[in-house]
Amino acid sequence: MRIPALRAGWLRQTFVHWAFPPDEVQALLPGELVVDEYDGAARVGLTPFMMVDVRLPGVPVLVPGLSTFAETNLRTYVRHRDGREGLWFLSIEVACPLMLAARAVGAPYNPGTLSVSVAGDVVSYTGSRRGGDASYRLIVRPGDPITPTERDVWLTSRWRAYTRRLGMLWETPVEHEPWPLRDAVVDVLEETLTTAAGLPAPTAELVVHFSEGVRHVRLGPTRPSVPRPGSS
Fold first, then answer.
1. What is d(CA 71, CA 117) in angstroms, rounded to the nearest whole number?
2. What is the largest CA-CA distance in the chain?
3. Measured distance CA(204)–CA(8) in Å, rounded
4. Cβ neighbours around 114 below 10 Å, total
């Protein structure tokens, strides 16, 4: 990426993943995208974190007082029909109203009240969507650093996000350093984001990771997603 559109850091990020039948997730995707499966299952991730030092290239901060805020994504993993992998966001909860501008290209941002707090060895996340139709509460205890397995990398490292708006598929490229991952144990998890997105309440065993974060995130310009030459 030669020139990013936005720079930021993503800190204190927890990744909570469930397995779902692929057809349940596919029903929520646009026709250009197919579920990317791991061990025969779709994966849906709840990922709360702090967005910090948000800024345009060459600018210290985006807006003083609004450059650091909590965000929480509900996401799944997809491939374009031409094979390119990426993320599809089922919902994005955010505490910064400026981010709602990304709705123009279909990013499903929802304004709400969110918090991230640390007390000793416990990290707590809470969020409530404006209007009260979706919320979550997550408390985790990060463990020891791990050497990521293939599955760990598959679940946490994607470099393209897809959205759909105005009859078009859009893509946003992402670059950052590798996630420093740790094991984590969930003490409390209460959420209605999955059912609000149109999925059944998850029942599969949790897969959980924690990361102190990455500080050198580069988001590229969002552009129409054009199939690669030779793809069908």
1. 13
2. 54
3. 33
4. 21
Q: Pairing relation of β-strands 223-224 and 168-175?
A: antiparallel
Question: For residue 152, which of 184, 186, 117, 174 has the smallest C-alpha distance?
Answer: 184
Q: 59: which 2 tokens? A: 């600018």
Side-chain-side CA neighbours of residue 65 (13 Å): 1
HEC states along 29-51?
CCCCEEECCECCEEEEEEEEEEE
Token look-up 């499966």 returns: 37
In the chain, the domains with their CATH numbers are 6-224 (2.40.400.10)
Contact partners, residue 142, CB within 8 Å, separation at least 6: 121, 123, 182, 183, 184, 210
Look up tokens 């293939």; give the residue.
150
Quick one: average pLDDT of 99-106?
91
Give the ranges where the chain is alpha helix by DSSP (H): 22-26, 150-156, 193-196
Q: pTM higher than 0.90, yes or no?
A: yes
Determine the residue type at 193: L
Mean pLDDT of the chain: 94
pLDDT tens by residue, 67-95 = 899 999 999 999 999 999 999 999 999 99
What does the H/E/C string look like for 103-144?
HHHCCCEEEEEEEEEEECCEEEEEEEECCCCCEEEEEEEEEE
CB atoms within 10 A of CB 213: 18
